[in-house]
Amino acid sequence: MPYGRCGDDDATWPAEDACADEETPLLHAGAAAARERFTPDVATSARVYNWLLGGKDNFAADRAAGARLLEVMPEVRLAARANRAFLRQAVRRLAAAGVRQFLDIGCGLPVAENTHEIAQRAAPGSRVVYIDVDPMVVTHARALLATDDHTIALRRTLCDPWRIVTDPVIRAHLDLSRPIGLLLLAVLHHLRRDAAACEVVRILRRMLAPGSFVVLSHLLDDGQPQTWRAQAVYSEAVVPVRARTAEWVAELVDGMEPVAHGIAHISVWLEGDESSGLGSIYDRAALKQIPLVCAIVRTPA
Known about the structure:
By secondary structure, the protein is an alpha/beta fold. The chain has a domain at 78-222 and 243-298: 3-Layer(aba) Sandwich (Rossmann fold). It is 39% helix and 15% strand. The chain is built from twelve helices and seven strands. The protein has helices at 45-52, 60-72, 76-96, 115-122, 135-144, 161-166, 168-173, 194-206, 225-237, 246-252, 266-270, 281-287; strands spanning 101-105, 127-132, 151-155, 181-185, 213-219, 257-265, 292-298. Strand 4 (181-185), helix 8 (194-206) and strand 5 form a beta-alpha-beta unit. The longest helix is centred in the first third of the chain and has 21 residues, at 76-96. The protein is globular and about 45 Å long. 45% of the residues are buried. Mean pLDDT is 87; it is low at 1-5 and 7-34.
């Protein structure tokens, strides 16, 4: 770790990591700047992910970037489906544990089985806040949620976590004195500097009431050349990302209680999950090759 353990209260962010550059002062180092305008000719992570999932909310640039990824990692479509299956499983687990509030940061474009649908099916009345930096994501989400008073979508950046934890709109929608489920699915690897990712999670953890949960998935540094090539292609064609080890992810949530498998490879989480839609012999074998580590942890009650 660049500056000590992620959870240390006295950890300080190195000065050179304070912001990405002078023109984007709110962005932590290593994070791509938010695009203010709609740019269909430039690939975005949300739209590439949508294409990999078989969605239609994408453009030629996104499909071209996705095709480049498939060339170096043929399992990348399966990885997107697996990440989505983990989200569904995690929300069900949290709902079964009594969680009725969810903060989904980096939610991506709406597809079948979104967080609010899973949560409200398990526990009607569950409240959800979606956060994404992509204006297209927020526009689509708000259209979907036009008649849902229990769910809102806001354009915010993970790179300014203080704005998230102090946001009056979020605090009016969620009761932060009670447990929430904080969802960070496939988003932290967009923060390339370890210090930035650690600081973001440290700040977000401070707002969690006892009994809250953190759910995350992260690109796994498994030491395989294919993973490094995929990281390089994605960083060039879409936005920069950084794979990290499972040990690093464990340090990120140090002090929290593991739930079920705790911090484990995606194949471990989805083994025996009949609702994942990934039960074929091919899928089960290919899942083991996917560089994705997932975690569900709980703040001590």
